[in-house]
Amino acid sequence: MGNAIARLNDFGQSPWYDNLTRPLVTQGGLQQLVDDDGIRGVTSNPTIFEKAMAGGEGYDDQLRELAGEPIETVYWQLVERDIGHAADVLRPTYDRLHGADGYVSVEVSPELAHDTARTITDAAALHARLGRPNVMIKIPGTQAGLPAVTATIAAGINVNVTLIFSIDRHREVIEAYLAGLDQLAADGGDLSSVASVASFFVSRVDTETDKRLPEGHALRGKVAVANARLAYRLFDEQFAGPRWEALAARGARKQRPLWASTSTKNPAYSDTLYVDDLVGSDTVNTLAQASIDALRDHGDPQPDTLRSDVDGAAQVLADLAAAGVDYADLTATLEREGVDSFARSFHDCLASLEKRRAEITA
What we know:
By secondary structure, the chain is of the alpha/beta class. Helix content is 56%, strand content 11%.
């Protein structure tokens, strides 16, 4: 049967690792994931960095070097070194696949989620400092983030649009990407040199929905997969037709849906639920260590499950409304909480770094 994770590549889905620490890169763990499991990318976010840096391993020497710097400068120096090293490990994958994969994602400051102009400026600066073609800049898919996505794509910079929860917002994210490609094309840019993913969050949808449904309700544990399948149907619809064909003829790449938050939170559900039911071509699934362990142990993914019973997925959302759960409020709540969570992690990380630097420089 072969490695269940690596088999996802055979089905057109790229497995990315949803974690990044300095020892993972420096001690060969990331290279082993690439070699043994077919991992083709890495994602990071402020929560991931907060956990990694709070642990301290591998960061003390650089903290000493930066003893006199403002702590936010220190954070970005540490982040950029980790991202750069990970991108270098994945560069052979990027080169082998001619830019179709092999990316590492890093997020602009979570404090900018509602600031379009600063997001555009910071995305360009972060891209320039990293100086690697296989880095994606993460921009939240908030209302303020959408024009920043367009401007950043138009500048020829790879973008991972994050914190997408609703179908309508996914539609707006796709339009923001296409508008950026239109502008890049009008400016005579190379469309084949830019790539993007749309990070559609999954398990958090079930977690929030289950809170709003009574115990034992038939829709519990069903909404997240249905939501993702409808997002994939939208992807199929939007990346077709004359507008897309004209862009594709100039080398444009599809903005792949990336299934984020795919670890199972509820122990009553299968620990591979958000992998098994979300396999499809031109997609990415970001796997945390728990999902990787589960897939290695008993995973058996099958091809094209995203296109299974899409009409049934639409019915699930219709039934959700009939059950009194407001989908718009549900997804808006998740977006707001996602932005707030990343901001808290960012500030917690700065506090952890300040404390650790004081300890080792005392």
